[in-house]
Amino acid sequence: MDFYPFHYLALGDSLTVGVGVPALDPGFVEHYACLSKQSLKKCIQYKKNARPGATTGDVLNMLHSPIVIEYVKHADIITITAGGNDLLNAAKAFIQNKNEKIFSNVLEQSQNNFSSIMKRIHNMEKQKEFIIRLTNLYNPFPNIPIAEEGIKTFNSLIYNFSKDKHVKVADIYNIVKGNERALLTRDGIHLNSRGYYQMALAFHKLGYFPVAR
Fold first, then answer.
1. Architecture of the domain spanning 2-204
2. Catalytic site residue from 7, 13, 14, 36
3. Tens of pLDDT along 123-173?
4. What angle do helix axes 28-40 and 193-204 make, rounded to 10 degrees?
5. pLDDT value, residue 125
6. Confidence label for 113 from pLDDT (cuts 50, 70 and 90)
7. Distance between CA atoms of 58 and 37, rounded to whole angstroms?
8. Does 122 qualify as catalytic in the annotation?
9. Catalytic, out of 7, 31, 166, 190
10. Is 190 an active-site residue?
11. Could you state, in order of their start, the residue ranges of all structural domains in the chain?
């Protein structure tokens, strides 16, 4: 085991918080840190900066905090979970007024926010190689056609960021699709313990280049 630790910063929403599993049980971040430790043969020190209900705009605002800025500058690994609440809020608004433009407006705004998030991270003065790992979105409402359409559109947008050598996107959509009852909690929205492990495994399988070759 290498003496010098890797620093891992987890930014995002309830998926990063670990909503859906009992207190003190591991969520996605803990599972991913453990898998990373096994693969990299390094101690992984992780920090979470996340809250349930956070949108892409909220995550962007997190990156203006002096503490978070310092975490970013020293991070070897950064994971970001965001976008689900943007679409969830849009779905709730759509149910009330049936205005389909809500989804297109939210998708445009979330893409702009994500672009700003990535630019802000890249513009910080990092002194070493690092990786950013994103996730696409799974659909907790598979029987609502417009929700499925919105999520597929968001997912196609998120993959554009993987053109950067530092960035890769985990495919959670296809892991959850058809396995909702096994991987989601009773609320039908959040992942359960098994779901979080599968999510962490998907991130782990993306590898660690260029921080590890």
1. 3-Layer(aba) Sandwich (3.40)
2. 14
3. 987 778 999 999 999 998 877 787 888 899 999 999 999 999 899 999 999
4. 40
5. 76
6. very high
7. 29
8. no
9. 190
10. yes
11. 2-204
